[in-house]
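Entry type: protein chain
Record version: 2
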Amino acid sequence: MQQEEERNGRAVGSVRTWEVVVAGLFLVVASIVMWDSWRLGARWASDGPQAGYFPFYIGLIIFIASAINLVSALTAGEKGRGAFVLWGQLRLILIVLVPSAIYVALIANPLFSLGIYVASALFIAFFMRLLGKYSWIKVAAVSIGTMVVFFLMFEIWFSVPLPKGPLEAMLGFA
């Protein structure tokens, strides 16, 4: 128990460390955007802006802002030494972030997608069971019931097609 408390109380890096890391990542992304936009054409042509004109300047703005953040982080002094996040706090963030990333991957994966309805039912069921500690009967009723209502609402009543997976294809709705 004491080890758990010690681990939850430890910092996961300093504010300075994470600001430098994030600023560096944004500098890299902005550089790639600017380089590729320049390759496409980032000038004003006789008939208007070239394909990379606006993305280049957006990348330039991101680059400048990131450079300012990097300098600010490096010169923060004592303020930058504070804890960025504690392990216990990070654990709470990851409990939501990791399942959310898996949820998106289950919908948007080009190789295999469960579709939005099945993925959403699993997402709701996961959180109801893990965090809510609801019985399996309630979990099944709410997660499946919600998705049936959403399917009827979007696919039938509003005629708005959403990403479907193998279950919908098997039922003839693909």
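Comment: The chain has seven helices and two strands.
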